[in-house]
Structure formats: C-alpha cells, structure tokens
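Q: Study each token:
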Amino acid sequence: MKNILTILTVLLLFAIPAKATVDNDFEKANELYKAGAYSEAIDMYNTILAQGYTSAALYYNLGNAYFRTDNIGAAILNYERALKINPNDEEIVQNLEYVNNRTLDKINKVPELFITKWFNSVLNWFSLSQWGVICVVFMVLLCSCVVVFFLTHSYLFKQISFYSGLVALLFFILSVVNASVVKSRIENMKQAIVMEPTVVVKSSPEENSADKFIIHEGCKLTIEDNLNNWCKVKLGDGNTGWVENNVIENI
C-alpha cells in the first residue's frame, strides 16, 4: 500500500507541472491567434495535441485557426472533433454549420423517423463523460433512498424514500442506456472528412474502376469498410463508393 501511494505521489508531481506547461502553451497559442499569426497558432495547437492532450476548446480553437487560413477541410475536421467531446456547445455548432455552408457538396440527408430524431437529440444533450456523471448521481440517490427506507421508522419517510427510489432507479437505468449508446456510437461509428479539394469516388477499391461521383473538401463521410489502401464510404444521402485512405481523415 505504501509503495502504491509513493508511485501515485510521484506521478502527481510529474503531472502537475506537465499540465501547467500545456495550459501555458495553450494561452500562447491563443495569443498568437488573437495577433493574427494563425499558422504559428496552428503549429502550437498541434504540438499540444501531439503530447496527448485533447479538449473541446483545443479542437475548437484549432478549427478557428484553420478556417482563418482557408483550410476548410481541417476546420470542419476539428470542429467535428470538438463537437464529439462537447455536443451541446452552441458556438461549435454554429461555426461548424457556417463552415459547412462554404463547402461545395450540398448533400440532402436521408430523413430520420421522428422517434429516431428525438432519441438522437436526447443523446446529444450531454457528452459521454457527462452521462457517466449523471449515472453516478442517480446511483447515489438510489442508494440514499434505500438506506433511508430501511433505517427510518416513519411511515411517511418510508413512502417518500420508496417512491423517490423508484424514480431514481428509472433515471439511473435511462442514463446507463444513454451512456452505453453514446459510447457504442463513438467506438463503432467511424466518420471522416474529405481533406482534398476534389475526390473521385470509385465503384470498387481499384484505381481503374468506374467513377461513381465526385465529392469535395470538407464533405463528411461514414466509413463502412476497409480494404488495403481503400475505404468504402457512405454519404448522408445514402450513396456509397470507394476512396483512397489518404484523401480522408478520421474524426
């Protein structure tokens, strides 16, 4: 036990100055952005990412910097990454929508059923970490209600704790389900952004195969399969085809 505490203490001592350095670099990058030195700010933001540190604010600011340099694909990519961490941030949503309007591809998405659209909107209320916190909160409330129910001698308090416990149990189950779905989507739904100005989508994973359609920088795709250096992708309107790996980047 003593050895474990020693190791944790050492790790903490190393983590604190490292976090301080990252915060300092982030502030310097923000100052470069404010000064109009967008390329330098991009380099510093990417340096922070290369060290393994990520956050919605970091991706959002990087997206802003790329947009200022007219790199639409990289801007959309980083806004999408920021939105993945914090799906409720209105500024991220607004900036992403604005930049998407600058892309050449205007894809009409397949309409969702009302229940599907409603369920997705509920999932997007909170990020995965926030759903995890909500699960813990309702679990604590449920345990508290159980303790009160068995320890109190008051009939009124027993009733209150019983029904409150049922409500807490219901919301705990719902939050666990939502957290599980969000986690599954993050792990299994592979999406990417087109990074090249123009990309020809092929009918099969071969350079000499027939052309199906053309997409452009900033277009969002869902990756359905991989074969050698090719990816099978699907657009929001349901069209599918194959593109080379090096023309897209995963969100």
Notes: Residues 4-16 have pLDDT under 50 and may be disordered. Strands lie at 191-194, 198-202, 211-216, 220-227, 230-234, 240-244, 248-250. Helices lie at 2-34, 38-50, 56-68, 72-85, 90-100, 114-123, 128-151, 155-188.
